[in-house]
Design brief:
Elements: H1 2-30, H2 58-67, H3 99-110, H4 116-130, H5 145-172, H6 194-216, H7 221-236, H8 250-271, H9 278-301, H10 303-308, H11 314-342, H12 358-370, H13 374-404
Helix pairs in contact: 4-5, 4-8, 4-9, 4-13, 5-6, 5-8, 6-7, 7-8, 8-9, 9-11, 9-13, 11-12, 12-13
């Protein structure tokens, strides 16, 4: 019995001795680690249990080593370089656009809605030059049709060229890259190569300048001066880093271009005189103000994108709240000018027909007060185009009625139906 007990005691002693190292290991794991001497090549960390250490099967490492994946490291820092966007649908190399597709692309680059800014002052200036020539002897007056269409073609070509140049330089500066509401964007959408857009813009600008040279000969040297300034403004409106649009001068340039410059230039060519009437200058002011309001609404719509691209416009400097006040001021002053022209004795009172556009004015003003989104401000911009169009239409009708009213009773009997 003693031998049996002694054997059991010996076995228990051996088992206790075997547990001592394991318990020591566990105690070491739970104990506070001792800071080791660090060096540039050795990194120490807290001890963890073996079960918590993630392991990777050796077979997976061998598979990765066999595949040898290519790893490229690219900087995410901001850069001024712009890359061509990758199209969502890759077209085959032999794909070619049809004529209709090219026409649709070109129509978007032309921006037909913006052409109204140029056509309206041309029409007003032509009517102001035509009305004084109306008389009983010449009931149709003297209207130079060739000069009129020459001016229309010249100003449209210059504006289209300016739009294409604007697309190119906006692409270089990363402007309107994510603007789905803005017109143009031929390069941003990957429709046309940048160099082709710039070349097309320069060619169209050149054609407009050449036609303008021939047409301006009938107006005298002052028309050449107005045309040269207008051409430079059309190019430098968005060209170069110090463009007019980026120096908070976009609205001011639009006021002079689409107001006094085109109206006075058209009047002098159609009247074939080297001087202009001051009344014509006053008539041009409302259209310059309305054009500036439309440009300002466009900048209000692009406010966030311009701030991100570090493009300084009046809208980005004033903020949305004060930009609303500027927009309303531009429009109200346009109506004040036309009312001031109609009130004096002997003035053409019928030009107050332009006040029939007040319902459109109310829609535009209430809309700009309530709109906070780009889509809402985009509608306000088009509402401003509509307002200016009807404003010019009623003004032209009023001027023609005022001119024809005293002539009709004095017309020969055979000319009266």
């Amino acid at each position: 019995m003693q031998s049996k007990n002694s054997k059991n005691t010996d076995a228990k002693n051996k088992m206790n001795k075997a547990k001592e190292p394991a318990e020591a290991t566990v105690n070491m794991a739970n104990a506070t680690p001792i800071k080791a001497v660090t060096s540039s090549h050795i990194v120490t960390a807290d001890s963890v249990l073996a079960e918590e250490v993630p392991t990777i099967p050796l077979g997976s490492l061998e598979t990765v080593s066999t595949l040898q994946p290519e790893v490229s490291v690219r900087s995410v820092a901001s850069t001024r370089s712009v890359n061509m966007p990758t199209p969502l649908v890759a077209q085959p190399s032999e794909y070619r656009r049809s004529i209709n597709e090219w026409l649709q692309v070109g129509w978007g680059g032309i921006r037909p809605a913006y052409s109204l800014l140029s056509l309206i002052p041309v029409c007003v200036g032509s009517v102001l030059a035509w009305v004084p020539t109306l008389s009983a002897k010449k009931p149709l007056g003297l209207f130079h049709t060739t000069h009129f269409f020459g001016i229309v073609l010249a100003v449209i070509l210059i504006q289209v060229g300016a739009n294409l140049v604007n697309d190119y330089y906006d692409y270089l500066r990363g402007i309107d890259t994510s603007n789905a509401l803005g017109p143009g964007g031929l390069i941003q959408q990957g429709l046309v190569e940048p160099a082709r857009v710039l070349m097309s813009g320069l060619v169209v600008l050149g054609l407009g300048a050449v036609i303008g040279l021939f047409v301006a000969a009938a107006g005298g040297p002052f028309v050449y001066l107005l045309g040269a300034i207008g051409l430079l403004c059309a190019y430098f409106y968005s060209a170069t880093a110090h463009s007019l649009a980026a120096l908070t001068l976009g609205e001011l340039a639009g006021f002079f271009l689409f107001g006094p410059f085109i109206t006075l230039g058209t009047y002098m060519v159609m009247a074939q005189t080297g001087s202009f009437d001051r009344t014509v200058l006053v008539y041009s002011l409302p259209f310059g103000l309305l054009a500036a309001a439309a440009i300002h609404a466009n900048n209000m719509r692009d406010l966030e994108g311009d701030i991100h691209a570090k493009r300084r416009t009046l809208a980005s400097l004033l903020g949305l709240r004060w930009s609303r006040w500027l927009y309303m001021t531009l429009i109200f002053v346009a109506y004040i000018v036309i009312v001031a022209l109609a009130i004096p004795r002997g003035a053409p009172h019928l030009i107050l027909l332009t006040l029939w556009t007040l319902p459109i004015l109310v829609v535009a003003v209430t809309g700009v007060v309530r709109s906070n989104t780009p889509s809402g401000l985009h509608l306000i911009m088009h509402q401003t185009f509509k307002l200016e169009t009807y404003f010019a239409l009623f003004l032209i009708i009023a001027l023609l009625i005022t001119a024809f009213a005293p002539i009709i009773p004095n017309l020969p009997a055979h000319l009266i139906p």
